[in-house]
Amino acid sequence: SGAEAMTLMKGAVKEYPLMEIDALKVIEEKLGRLTLGLGIVGAILSELPITPSRLLDTLNRPSPIRDFSWNDREVISLKNHEILVRLLDVCLSIFEHADGPRSLAIRMVHVSGWFAPSAVPIHMLALAAHKIPKKHRRGPRWRKWWRTLTCGLAASRMQRSEAEAAAMLMRFGIARCSAKSEYIQFHDMIRLYARKRGGTRTAQAAVQAVYLRGSIKHSSEHLWAACFMAFGFGSDPFLVELRPSELMFFVKQIVVPLAINTFITYSRCNAALELLRLCTDALERAAESMLSHAGKWRETSISCFRPVQSEAQYTYLWQELALLKASVLETRAKLMLRGGQYGIGDDLIRKAIFIR
Hints:
With 356 residues, the chain is mainly alpha-helical. It is built from 16 helices and 3 strands. It folds into 2 domains: 2-201, no CATH class; 242-355.
């Protein structure tokens, strides 16, 4: 109802002049009473010395939303909620002014969209945020306006801890707490916004954080999300290309245990076998890429020592990739035999033996 929406937007401030109430009603109408947006408005008004009319003026300013590709089918919902996107831009500008351009809270938002749509461990989210490569770019002019409003938050530009950054996200309504301790969760709209704002470079950081900190017991959903990004599934292409050494670690520590657990514990045989098949394809691509790079070393290198050393390194890594591929084929064969697919299992075993 209108009264409930007004209560959400007022936040900790109970009374406003009539003109400010009118501004809140306009914001409510623009948001379409979207609960997520109403809560963020209330958080901003509670945390900062800003009036609803000033906030409305800011939301009416041109937004970086024009940078999005509206032809993309998955951003239709964002296009229908442009005011929410502007509101999220305002929040990120507040975080930037409080902590600087490398704000941990901002980076945590940017990587949040690449995790599974479930609660994320704060330590994993923060690790992914730290893995984002630096990107120097000039911010939009309208952000300077916030410096007159957020002077209270700018008292300390010291790097916030993981817990402090997560607490800030929850204070402003960007994230919400989870029933699990040390976990936070993001709304689907915010996750979509984060993917569009952060780009695929943040996807790489999310995958790295998952294979370094993830576990089947506590974060299997995020392991699957990392596999989707690294291998692609169905008609979706892979988004992240891991280096050969990273790929081998990822396969050994994440992919094979996840596939076995999925097959045996949950009896999701097709999903487990498809994961191993895509993993095999990724290992083949990595091996072929290494062979082509080794050829370029021979053609372009001038030194009589460096090519030998480089070729030896490539050869060793290529052999490790081949052995790992054989191990994955063997695992696929065992699961096939367990499922009664004896013919396919026998073929896979023969391929593994041939490689070795």
